[in-house]
Structure formats: C-alpha cells, structure tokens
C-alpha cells in the first residue's frame, strides 16, 4: 500500500513539475537571469510549494504518518559546511543546465538525449558523493 501511495505522490509531483514549467530549462534559466531577460513566474511556483509545505509541517508536528513510520526530525543544529557545499553544487548545476533532480526525471519522457546525459551525470555524482565525503571528513 505504501508503494502505491508513493507512486501516486510521485506522479502528482511530476505532473506538477510539468504543468508549472519547472521542466522547461529556458524558463528556469530565465528565472536565474536577473540582469538579462528575467522571468519572475517561477517565484509563484516556489511560493506555491513553500507555503503549503510550511502549513503541512505545522499540521504534522505532533502527528504520526498515516501509512506508518515516523516523520523526519527537524534540524535544530542549523546549517553546516556539508549543507553549504551541497547547496552551492546544486545551485551551480541548476544554473548551468536549468534542471534539478525532480524535473530531470520528469523530462526524461520528452527531454531527448540531453536529459539522459544530465540524468547519468547526476546519478554518477550521487554515487560518488558518499566516498568523497568520507575521504574529506576523515580525521588526520
């Protein structure tokens, strides 16, 4: 049953990415082009995602998931070096290509070979990140 609900949620998420234009790399890159041909429409997409999620977290604060398990604990320690580095790398990839992981998967159905190349590079980065992190954080 959990897999069915996960598939439904993933399908809705992908549909939302397509409808909102988040899979259109020109629209995303236009959002990031502050000093050129700036396209502010993705601000509404982001606000439309952040506001309901904030309400959902507030609602779920003292509840348990319907399908079992536990909600993840809130991070109370604040940002750290790993988060900052990850955010910078994510932002660089998003700015260079105009895709992030969710839209990259959604665009596979129509993105052509460029989307597949991006997805392969993204998967390689995800595969290589843990051993690189272990090496960088290994005590001297």
From TrEMBL:
Pfam families, per database record: DUF6691
Keywords per UniProt: Membrane, Transmembrane, Transmembrane helix
Source organism superkingdom: Bacteria
Transmembrane segments: 41-60, 81-104, 110-129
The protein's name in its UniProt record: YeeE/YedE family protein
Species whose genome carries this gene: Harenicola maris
